[in-house]
Recover the amino acids of this structure.
């Protein structure tokens, strides 16, 4: 793996188009800025052709989906595909309602995604594995995540990343396991949404989407891990803010030092 | 009153459906997570039947109302009533515009609410008492809050909670006064909106809505009071974040120790 | 210049109507509260006549523009003009897409603005000067900002404020340069959006829009400068929150002490 991704990201400072939800729009923007990127948030159908043409990546997040937004997502996704920029799907709470299920199926049919990133409940739903998801939260169950990641990656011909205490990332053949989890991530809103955007940013760095996704997820997990070293499990508010500082401070040397990645 | 509400809330970890405004969606989600609950934010008409069927409470907040949202609120409210889950109304700035006045009247006609929670200006408006509200802020005036809380509770056959330096909660017969106010609450946005969501979460704990609302409002006020002990009146940003930590740390023993509740 | 603007602002506590974007609605509300003002956020067409009639200023921000919002902006702007309250335009990312360009032209034709406040890229676009803007970020280039501020002020018969390391403010004749910049402002989202709202608040203090805009921009820059004295360039999250505290603590004496203003 290349070991200068964060450095290159800060140098390139890519412009990232986010179609995202009203809950995390602010946090995702601040997180991308902390990583040295330029975020632009827009849902307006009038801008969906042009923005992917001037941006370096598109991140689609269905957290507070509306029917208007679905149209915008499709238009932007097609423009992104035409402009050959990476497209990330964050299928927030996909199993929770019919609307989310149908929308994700439509998006996966109409748009070629480079990466699908979600929590265990969301990706298990896409794999049609039995799992007890809980709204937009991961939920609980027993499952073979390596297999699920592989299956969904093969099914949709893209990288798949399952975030949790351990992250599982697959391109359909290989699976990377990242063991840098932090208990505080599920206690704040938008930690997954921001990671999806960070993945989109890393995917602008080159062609090797699998390695770049592993690099993005490892870097992000470590930024959280470093903060957690100084906090207890109740300091959810402090974690929320300190994570931004940690992302702003993170460098490749630190990531290399902390990273616990294994391959299957 | 039961003295293990916070413990039970963290154990049950209810899923709370919020139809809320773009200003506080993030803070309400983080606050509910800090209390051990799972928030889901959604306004989409397509989801308004299904979400209340999988959630344990519905919280309706009119802070940045749109005509589309009104339709969603009614549909979700009816589904919540059908599914017998508690429904909370936060009539943000109800007196400020005709649109808000009419919408609240429509909501109160179409939906059976378990609780209406607002500031002095909002509840005084519902009681048709003369009061100088100020946009979405409480405003000022002279009024008998105990009587207002009682009157509105009787009028709409639900619990009413008036938040302020002193909280007044009534079921139409009894009135509880909570004297754990904190000067910093009105200096941050969404402190009332988050309290409404926390009340919705507490209402999932049983049938006694009056006691559970008193418990929710007392717990929340005390979380703020504890933070305020270490801050001065200018530290609005610190208060905003530390309140999340305080909610995450709060337990029943602490609430019992600090609580100043009297009944009329 | 009057040296009691902050004091008067906290005394008057004006109600400020914001038509703003989903990214910064929360931060702008908290920032205005920290300055002692009362924010109200609303996009609903149903409220656009009434709100400017009860508010003391209107701030229009196109950050996450929708076609529905454009209609609301025009209606609110006309009502604000009729009610003689100051109107501020924040043309976020105006050069990024045709939709933003056309909307800003429409707004400038339909509404009489008292102030246009933006970053270098945005105001350069309005001056039709060659500049490499980057999405909603300032971008880079060489330009005579004093001249640009003057030109745009003359063209639209209003005050123009260009925010950056140095702020340039013009009424078309005079130009004020404020040299109180802070490197952390461009690293957080919404720092410009909040400044636009703060300018709107200051404009409620009297008729001299040029001096009041200079006062607002100087005060805001200094609030950031004071925070930055205790932080390094990586502490973006801390800066985000501490800026609210700093705005809440700021007084006229401190502003007078720090201010570096020169006139051309």
């Amino acid at each position: 793996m290349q070991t200068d991704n964060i450095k290159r990201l800060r140098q390139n400072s890519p412009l990232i188009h986010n179609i995202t939800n009203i809950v995390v729009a602010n946090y995702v923007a601040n997180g991308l800025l902390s990583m040295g990127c330029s975020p632009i948030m827009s849902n307006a159908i009038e801008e969906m052709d042009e923005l992917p043409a001037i941006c370096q990546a598109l991140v689609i997040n269905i957290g507070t989906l509306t029917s208007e937004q679905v149209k915008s997502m499709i238009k932007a996704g097609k423009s992104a595909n035409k402009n050959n920029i990476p497209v990330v799907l964050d299928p927030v709470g996909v199993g929770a309602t019919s609307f989310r299920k149908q929308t994700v199926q439509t998006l996966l049919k109409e748009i070629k995604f480079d990466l699908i990133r979600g929590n265990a409940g969301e990706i298990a739903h896409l794999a049609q594995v039995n799992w007890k998801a809980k709204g937009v939260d991961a939920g609980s169950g027993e499952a073979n995540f390596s297999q699920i990641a592989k299956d969904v990656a093969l099914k949709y011909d893209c990288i798949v990343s399952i975030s949790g205490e351990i992250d599982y990332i697959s391109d359909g053949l290989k699976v990377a396991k990242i063991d840098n989890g932090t208990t505080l991530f599920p206690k704040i809103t938008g930690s997954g949404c921001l990671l999806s955007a960070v993945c989109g940013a890393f995917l602008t760095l080159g062609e090797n989407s699998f390695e770049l996704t592993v690099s993005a997820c490892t870097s992000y997990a470590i930024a959280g891990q470093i903060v957690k070293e100084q906090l207890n499990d109740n300091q959810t508010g402090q974690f929320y803010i300190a994570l931004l500082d940690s992302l702003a401070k993170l460098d490749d040397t630190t990531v290399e030092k902390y990273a616990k990645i294994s391959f299957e």
Q: What stands out?
A: Chain A touches chain B through 34 residues (CB under 8 Å). The mean pLDDT of chain A is 96. The CA atoms of residues 70 and 103 of chain A lie 7 Å apart.
